[in-house]
Amino acid sequence: MDNIIHPQTAIGHVHLIISNLERSLRFYTEIIGFRILRKNQYEAVLTADGATPLVVLEEKTDAVPKPPRTTGLYHFAILVPDRKSLAQSLFHLLQTGYPLQGASDHLFSEAVYLADPDGNGIEIYADRPREKWEKTENGEYKGVTEPLNVSDLFAQPGIEAWSGLPPKTRIGHIHLHVGDIAKAYDFYVRALGFEATIRMGTHALFVSAGGYHHHIGLNTWAGVGAPPPPTNAVGLRVFSILLLDEEEREKVAERLQYIGASVRRNENSIWTSDPFGNEIELAIQQ
């Protein structure tokens, strides 16, 4: 069985449970820079290019905070197209006074971290050119967490005033709390077909398609054996993986069924869930 996912695979959108739609919309449009693609009383779809859904916000009137030692979202990562875009976003965030949680240089990328009003973790980042990504002796990417050189970031020529997220913005990766790294490896590598790119002992694993540094991060920092959060907790409801075509999606579904994972179908999508309750939509690239 061919068990390597297609190199053009990418992360599609993230669907979040939040407690107050209007409050979240102000944050995601005025602070982050998304645009509203469509909206109803309890749900809004956000975009950067006016057409592609990137974030879905769903209000639950009975939402509760996500318990700290549970699986689910660690953060989702908004990939802007270049360093100038990252500089514009960071400068805007500093101007608004919104609290940041960190700003880091990971060698392969530069990133800023914050959380939405419900505590959902967000990374905004720009990749360095792929030829500058360093590898270790075992062939995995060398990833570090050093302080971001903000002065150098802001010293770039040609930085324009912030006007929201650029149209080429997309969801670059998602990082999840899981309960067991070995089980996560079986699901995300052996079944879904991603390749391991960075390992941090037995507590974190990063996987990707096509040699990217990571499309999905997995960690046990909420505790080994951590349970899923309550169904009405704020946080991640589902994220989508964009596959090349129907043939590729059926290959992935077959591998999932082979390990006994749930595979649920409707007219247009296939849904599954990892061993820790994280829901995934297998979608096809448009």
TrEMBL record:
<keyword id="KW-0479">Metal-binding</keyword>
<dbReference type="GO" id="GO:0004462">
    <property type="term" value="F:lactoylglutathione lyase activity"/>
</dbReference>
<dbReference type="InterPro" id="IPR037523">
    <property type="entry name" value="VOC_core"/>
</dbReference>
<protein>
    <submittedName>
        <fullName>Glyoxalase</fullName>
    </submittedName>
</protein>
<feature type="domain" description="VOC">
    <location>
        <begin position="170"/>
        <end position="285"/>
    </location>
</feature>
<dbReference type="Pfam" id="PF00903">
    <property type="entry name" value="Glyoxalase"/>
</dbReference>
<feature type="domain" description="VOC">
    <location>
        <begin position="10"/>
        <end position="127"/>
    </location>
</feature>
<dbReference type="GO" id="GO:0046872">
    <property type="term" value="F:metal ion binding"/>
</dbReference>
<dbReference type="InterPro" id="IPR004360">
    <property type="entry name" value="Glyas_Fos-R_dOase_dom"/>
</dbReference>
<dbReference type="InterPro" id="IPR018146">
    <property type="entry name" value="Glyoxalase_1_CS"/>
</dbReference>
<dbReference type="InterPro" id="IPR029068">
    <property type="entry name" value="Glyas_Bleomycin-R_OHBP_Dase"/>
</dbReference>
